[in-house]
Amino acid sequence: MILIVGALCVALFFGLRGAAWSMVDVRINDTRYIRHKTDKTASEFQTYVSDQNLSSSDAENISKWIRKHWDVTCVVDAEETVYYDMYGSVLRDSSSEISEIMDETNAYPITFADGSYRIYLYGFFGMSYYLYAEYALAVVCMVIFFLIIGGCVSHKIKYIKAINYGIGIMEGGALDYTVPVRGHDELTEVAISLNSMRRTLKEQIQAEEEARQANHKLITAVSHDLRTPLTAQIGYLEILKKCAEDLQPGDPIKRYLEKCMASSIRLKEMTDDMFEYFLVSASDSPDQSTELTEYDAPDIFAQSIGEGMAFLEEKGYHLQMDICEESGTVRLYINYLIRILDNIVSNLLKYADPQKPIQVRVDCDAGFYRIAVTNAVKRDRSMEESTGIGTKSIEILVKRMDGTVVFEEADGQYTVQISLARHA
Q1: From edge to edge, which strands make up the β-sheet containing 81-84?
Q2: Are 228 and 220 in contact (CB under 8 A)?
């Protein structure tokens, strides 16, 4: 683009220069103009000679004046005829070259310090106009060049801003927006590529959403198909256990019934955990039925933790609770908090040693409330191998409330610590 515009401006310069020179020719070939300029130059020369008190033979100072008036040549016809060209060079004696240019129409009397002599002035006064015309044309062509380039650059900058605006919209998730396609340059290729990427990304997201919905239907169907016979099977085993109450404690039938019951319950728990995890991770945003709400922290923690842990006390577990009572608020999804506590209680029932106390603490500092549940781990966990689904569900739910969770196990102690932001 720059080369093309530059070439056009150069062509314009040379095209207009001929016209400009023709106009200058009309001006400088005018007889009255030439006479006026010659008379004026002769008057300036007389003033210079008088001011400097020059003699007709003072070639050095006369040459100096001629060099300042570069469009003039001069012949001083004194005791010695001297020719001064426009560069101030001196040609002496009455050579044929000097005689040829001594035209009486250009003769002017000049009073020197050593007498009055005639000089012959010849001006090339139009030369400056040629230069001025070329300078003006050069300036005009440069202005045109920068105006065209500036307009093109401004247009490209606006297009870049439009592309950047489209990228910002797509970053916000609006994949239906189409980046405008203009021209046939590199920016056009960028816009086309962005639109292609947008369509591909949109198709991938739609495919993922369809796959997620298909998985949801599949898991729901599988969970229903598993839960129904498992529930019935557990019911039948309960009946058989009652029928086997009269058997001796060491009877193989009674022992096998207990193992069948434990296996069935474990399978049902794993199915429930799997379904719970899928419900939690199925969507990337909180349930529409829940709202982020600000609660009084001591009250909501005392109520929700107290209700959640009461079931453990009924099962014979000993709890040591310490809840911070400093005033403050916390923002959370109450449904999520309840589900988190249900997961923690479920894990405690599976893995906590019922002979050791369970410590439940809510600590607070300037920026956070920290819920920590610590329990001793059962020594015999052969029938309670963890799938890790419960902890993953807790991580997802806590993250959606802008909190963090840490799971630690050391020296036979297992701790879950949940941190939620504290507000005034």
Answers
A1: 90-92, 81-84, 72-77, 115-123, 107-112
A2: no
What are the structure tokens assigned to 324, written together? 């911070």
Give the contacts of 56 (CB within 8 A, at least 6 positions apart): 76, 78, 79, 112, 114, 115, 117
Asked if 75 contacts 88 with a C-beta cutoff of 8 angstroms, the reply is no
As a whole number of angstroms, the distance between CA 100 and CA 93 comes to 13
Three-state DSSP class for residue 386: coil
Q: DSSP readout, 387-407?
A: -SHHHHHHHHHHHHTT-EEEE
User: For residues 360 and 324, is the Cβ–Cβ distance under 8 A?
Assistant: no
The angle subtended at Cα 103 by Cα 98 and Cα 105, nearest 5°, is 155
Read off the amino acid at residue 94.
S
Model pTM above 0.90: no
What pLDDT is stored for residue 381 in this prediction?
57
Q: Which residues contact 368 (CB under 8 A, 6 or more apart)?
A: 419, 420, 421, 422
How many beta carbons lie within 10 A of that of residue 284, not counting itself?
7
The CA–CA distances, whole Å, from 71 to 30, 84, 121 equal: 17, 12, 11
Query: 358-364 and 368-376 as β-strands: parallel, antiparallel, unpaired?
Result: antiparallel
Judge contact between 285 and 212, C-beta under 8 A. Answer: no
d(CA 88, CA 69): 9
Is the alpha carbon torsion for 137, 139, 145, 151 positive or negative? negative
pLDDT at 285 over 70: no
Q: Provide the CA 163 distance to its chain's centre, in angstroms.
A: 12
How far is Cα 34 from Cα 27, in angstroms, rounded to an integer?
9
Write 79-82 long-range contacts (CB < 8 A, 24+): 82/57
CA distances from 344 to 226, 280, 350, 382 (A): 24, 15, 10, 20
User: Rounded to an integer, what is the distance from CA 374 to the centroid of its chain?
Assistant: 46
3-class secondary structure, 45: helix
* Residue 346: how many other CB atoms lie within 10 Å: 16
Q: What is the mean pLDDT of the chain?
A: 81
Residue range 214-242: mean pLDDT, rounded: 78
Q: What is the CATH number of domain 293-421?
A: 3.30.565.10
Q: Write the pLDDT tens digit of every residue in 46-63.
A: 999 899 998 888 888 888
Residue 255: other Cβ atoms inside 10 A = 13
Domain regions of the chain by residue span? 2-129, 221-281, 293-421
